[in-house]
Design a protein that fits this description.
Elements: E1 2-4, E2 10-12, E3 20-22, E4 26-28, H1 34-64, E5 69-72, H2 74-80, E6 87-92, H3 96-103, E7 109-111, E8 119-124, E9 127-133, E10 138-139, E11 146-147, H4 154-159, E12 169-171, E13 176-178, H5 183-189, E14 191-192, H6 198-204, H7 207-219, E15 222-223, H8 225-234, H9 243-254, H10 259-269, H11 272-275, H12 278-281, H13 295-309, H14 316-324, H15 329-332, E16 334-335, E17 341-342, H16 346-360, H17 365-377, H18 391-401, H19 405-414, H20 421-445, H21 456-463, H22 469-485, H23 490-503
Parallel strand pairs: 6-9, 14-15
Antiparallel strand pairs: 1-4, 2-3, 5-6, 5-12, 7-8, 8-9, 10-11, 12-13, 16-17
Helix pairs in contact: 1-2, 1-5, 6-8, 7-9, 7-10, 13-14, 13-19, 14-17, 14-19, 16-17, 18-20, 22-23
Length: 512
């Protein structure tokens, strides 16, 4: 099938020769992907027209200086998918100092942070642009840092990129489409492949293996068989990458539209042994005498169900907690007499494991604290039964969750993966009732700010104490009383404080 294309030049391959871009008026697309490819090109036209005020101005300046300018990489991919953002990537044959000269007096702002790598950044009319000189880098294959070498051709520049869907370019003066490595066909087929061999690409930069899993999650693509084979064989190479970069890719993967698919690729290829070794360990062997849920599969379902409960976009903390909430089960599994299996205190063990793993991945203290607390609390609801909790227990549940309460609601609901419809309905009904009780008590008592009925200054004055640990103990005691009994009158709070002080051997001045 032949499809008319407004922006595309076609790639002609002559036997025994390197691919070259030639100007032809038609783009030939074969097989069932032709209609998809046509739609992709139509998207590209629309998106290029949308950014044309900035891109065309810039292209004219480069052409006047005798240089080429290409929209490239992820920007072309996203333009083809109809999702181009305001951060645009360009490449050029001009060297960095020549780029700076071309931009002088035109850009709203210019920065040279990446100029050693051939990249100049700028803003114009609210759009952020990065312009990088053609690269022909070589790698020492010990670190992921290349020896920066500038190139002279767009084809060589595209060959060094990570995936074919990111190895397309559009020459902006004539809007010529350049696709020497089949990126268009891969994009239409939703396949992730590499311009060079996967072995070469991943040896140069092992982080690309993790990026493959990230793109599977973000774009819903499937990796080519040879990519999966190389990732599996070379997974240990990922240990060359710093924890900070691994964490960044993992976070993007988890916040993608299809995080389960990305996680499964990590586990199936062995990359998870480097990134999150606890994940493959959740694939517990199950024998005919000791049946229990597949913890790994259960965790993936919980992750999917947590995503479905999100309301304001991806929530990294919730997704990490959903994926890792049962991380402590392998270490706590015990076979009981009669064929039972127990995982006593796996939430306690799991919270400690989460803190350790997320620290090693260089997550922030806030993320570590929040995820580990959600893992620690995720089983608390199962003591609720059919509503046996007292109001005091409900207050403690809310207080312990603090600002994580909304996330805890979602995690607990997502954790229900039973196929028994009646059991699932009963669990959801019980949690509905708990949320209603929380709302009622909150309306009555302002649960968001559960504090003792006397503050530290009043405690010191009533007990004649200077600032110190005893004041903190008194404050905690009054808070516990508040959680158990609800709000106290001032007189009741004073009497409770005096009674506690007497038990501690503290004489309250003016009190009989």
């Amino acid at each position: 099938m032949v499809v008319r294309c407004a922006v595309c030049w076609s790639l002609r391959r002559d036997s025994g020769r390197s691919p070259r871009v030639v100007p032809v008026p038609w783009c030939v697309v074969s097989g069932s992907n032709s209609s998809s490819a046509a739609r992709l090109r139509e998207n590209a036209v629309v998106e290029l027209l949308r950014i044309s005020p900035v891109a065309e101005e810039l292209a004219k300046r480069f052409a006047a200086a005798g240089h080429q300018l290409y929209l490239v990489g992820g920007s072309v991919r996203d333009a083809l998918l109809g999702r181009l953002g305001t951060d645009l990537d360009f490449t050029t044959d001009a060297r960095p100092q020549q780029v700076l000269a071309i931009l002088r007096g035109w850009a709203d702002a210019v920065w040279e942070t990446g100029i050693a790598f051939g990249t100049v950044g700028l803003t114009k009319h609210g759009t952020t642009l990065e312009i990088t000189t053609f690269r022909a880098d070589s790698y020492d294959r010990v670190t992921r840092n290349p020896e920066v070498t500038f190139g002279d051709s767009i084809e060589a520049d595209l060959l060094r990129r990570d995936f074919t869907v990111n190895a397309m370019a559009v020459e902006l003066t004539e809007r010529r489409f350049v696709d020497p490595y089949g990126g268009m066909e891969a994009l239409a087929a939703k396949v992730l492949d590499t311009p060079a061999t996967p072995q070469e690409s991943f040896a140069d930069d092992p982080l690309r293996m993790l990026r493959a899993a990230r793109f599977v999650s973000q774009l819903g693509f499937s990796p080519a068989p040879r990519v999966v084979e190389a990732m599996t064989a070379m997974s240990e190479e990922l240990s060359r990458i710093t924890a900070e970069r691994v964490q960044t890719e993992l976070s993007k993967l988890l916040c993608g539209a299809h995080p389960r698919r990305g996680v499964e690729l990590l586990v199936d290829t062995g990359l998870a042994r480097i990134v999150l070794p606890e994940l493959p360990e959740m694939r517990l062997e199950i024998d005919e005498h000791h049946q229990h849920k597949d913890v790994y599969e259960h965790s993936l379902v919980v992750l999917e169900q947590a995503v479905d409960l999100e309301q304001d976009g991806p929530d990294l903390v919730l997704r990490l907690a959903a994926l890792l909430h049962d991380i402590g089960k392998p270490a706590t599994r015990r076979f009981e007499s009669g064929g039972g299996v127990s995982f006593h205190h796996h939430e306690v063990v799991g919270a400690k494991m989460v803190r350790k793993r997320l620290r090693e991945l260089r997550y922030s203290k806030d993320v570590i604290a929040d995820v580990s607390q959600l893992v620690f609390l995720h089983l608390r609801f199962h003591g609720y039964g059919k509503g046996e909790w007292t109001d005091s227990a409900v207050r403690r549940y809310v207080t312990d969750a603090g600002p994580l309460l909304t996330r805890l609601h979602k995690l607990v609901r997502a954790d229900c993966t039973t196929r028994n419809r009646r059991k699932a309905q009963n669990l959801q009904r019980s949690y509905d009732e708990l949320e209603q009780r929380i709302a009622r008590i909150a309306a009555e008592e302002d649960l968001a700010r559960v504090r003792p009925d006397l503050d530290g200054n009043e405690i010191m004055k009533l007990l004649g104490l200077p600032p110190g640990p005893l004041v903190g103990k008194a404050w905690k005691h009054l808070k516990d009383v508040r959680l158990d009994r609800g709000p106290l009158s001032h007189e009741e709070a004073v009497a409770e404080l005096v009674s506690w002080a007497r038990e501690q051997g503290i004489e309250a001045p003016g009190q009989p």
